[in-house]
């Protein structure tokens, strides 16, 4: 098997769609050169919203791994045990990761497609390769000052993810607290550098030892020795260089060292990375495995930082799709910083991966004069600068045999462990400081260095100054907010404030708070190190009326981790009080408001209700309307007085009693939630309605405007369109009614007739009065000719004019002119005006439909030739008619005709 190419992009994500996915071109290219390729498979994380510490519980991680196994088995249709035990040349499961939903596999194209077709698989990334990113700096960065003060990193550790750390070198004697290895066997590509060529070794004492180095009896591997040099910078103990006599020391010389070998041996591809053959290169999956192990074991390791002086590629922005993102982000959230080299390509707008991952602390290199090194990548993603030019540090012993050695190397690989060691040093001095706090301190106190040619200004670290500012400010109270309930006014028996401090604090207990206005007691729910929920309950809290306030007790001993006592306890805008109200509201009055008399024929009835205090949660649904189909509406007069108006329904013609009652399911409460205590008073709650009948009906056919209807009750009703109508007045029972058309429509003019126009009022509304409106149409037509006598063989012309003289438009009026047989070769054109419409032209007789606007006309110009025939008078008739379905009384003017007579003058030459 051969590898496809020498440098692989760090994040080749494959798009996933429902049921199928197309393999990314980069993977397709990889598969062209190799039957199987190493990949990292990302699986949907169903616990993504769960708090991180819960997701890292053993039960949760075991469940996640079991789910991942089931998904892989389902997609590939192979038992997971078979995939685990497959040989190095077969498709197989290479690694699982406990803290992130990823697996490392060796797969062919069909298997990649099968996994992508599963909806639980979110992406597949090619398992990328990277190479190692290839005495007097301690005073420069201020570490010596801290060493002199006794701060040397004791009690914490830093992890070196690299080619390993030489366990026999004097700089690390008794300092390596854990030694592990994550390395890969990929057929015809790589061989594991773990003991016995295992792909993982967590138990062998020197599993994280550096690989074969120049001078060793075994074949040297290009790139090895890098991790030893890096470890010496970060946390090496004092060591005298046997060559120059200088005393070398790391930034955190008392910190524990976690040696993590993440490189594999390659017998090809080395030249592409600038290394001799064989060489050491690192898979992304081995780095994730190492970071995953560090995250799981961070507490037992007292881990402060991880160093990754490795990487490659060119990224001008954050690469948060990189598969290493999740575990690096989780480490940061859990208090472990990951320092990563920016890279040595000299880019002025880009860094390498994984330094482009946003939660990482990305480091560039300077020389001792605070000038950015020419090889150091420069970009906005770089967080800190540190010395990285000609750095003298540990060199591996030959065959693990003393004496120790040292050598000088330049690179961002050397700058990065300065930062990893500085973080360990500060974490040791400030155990409760977060990664954010430590990074911010290093950034704010660093020496500003301008990078050329980018012009970016970045801080070169000063760890002594950062130590001085990490926590010199006493904590205060940022806010006190009403949490439960959130409203000031309440009737609950327990209230909770959320108290947020300006920083992480300690020693928060119930005794630190003072509550007034109640005999209730205080309890504390510690939400986080910066927030506490303070609850008051018990005592008289279930019955007291009044203001309950929260304050701080005299003698409270809240302080931050550095020992600074709580200072300002009065935040601006604090919501420190609740107003408790446990007294139920009462309905004091329930009366007729308008009209005030009990007996009425009013169409609108208004009740008024008054309560003993302001109420809420009140609506029309809290009342039952009795004796009518009227609709109720609800209007507040003030917070304790409301009016309910009944209207519509059958009120206009009802005879009977109308009442209003509180509903059995009413939900009336006061503003804090106390339910209504006393039921409605039994006074003035009904109206006696005496009514007649309304008169109405429907209008049809109305086109014009100005239709006015009247009745004998004095109502004058203007109707604007078809549909029902009702007069406003009511005819008393037994009285007669009469409806007439007072004014017919005028624009356009219509005639309207009434049926069922009179009768006697009864117990129900009169709704069968019918008003039918008819349209008025008036059409005219005329015909004329330019010839007084018809000459044989001569041409002649006719002019036919159609005019709509009526007030309404007429659609599809038919115009005809059937020509006599003596006229041949006829043709015509039509000219409309005033918005009318007709066909433009035609031949022979005219038989056309036209649209005529009020006052509009169409004019036909017809030309023909006289044929042979007997001498006689020639008659030509033109007609127009409206459509037959137009409804109107007077149809005589719905059509018109005109006839024109022309004498013929034929001679003997013409044959009949």
Automatic annotation (TrEMBL):
Assigned keywords, A-Z: Hydrolase, Protease, Serine protease
Molecular-function GO term, any one: serine-type endopeptidase activity
Annotated catalytic residues: 162, 226, 413
InterPro entries membership: Ig-like_fold, OmcB-like_DUF11, Peptidase_S8/S53_dom, Peptidase_S8/S53_dom_sf, Peptidase_S8_Asp-AS, Peptidase_S8_His-AS, Peptidase_S8_Ser-AS, Peptidase_S8_subtilisin-like
Listed SUPFAM superfamilies: Subtilisin-like
Pfam families: DUF11, Peptidase_S8
Entry's family note: Belongs to the peptidase S8 family.
PANTHER family attached to this UniProt entry: CEREVISIN-RELATED, PEPTIDASE S8
Protein's name according to its UniProt entry: Serine protease
Organism per entry: Wenzhouxiangella marina
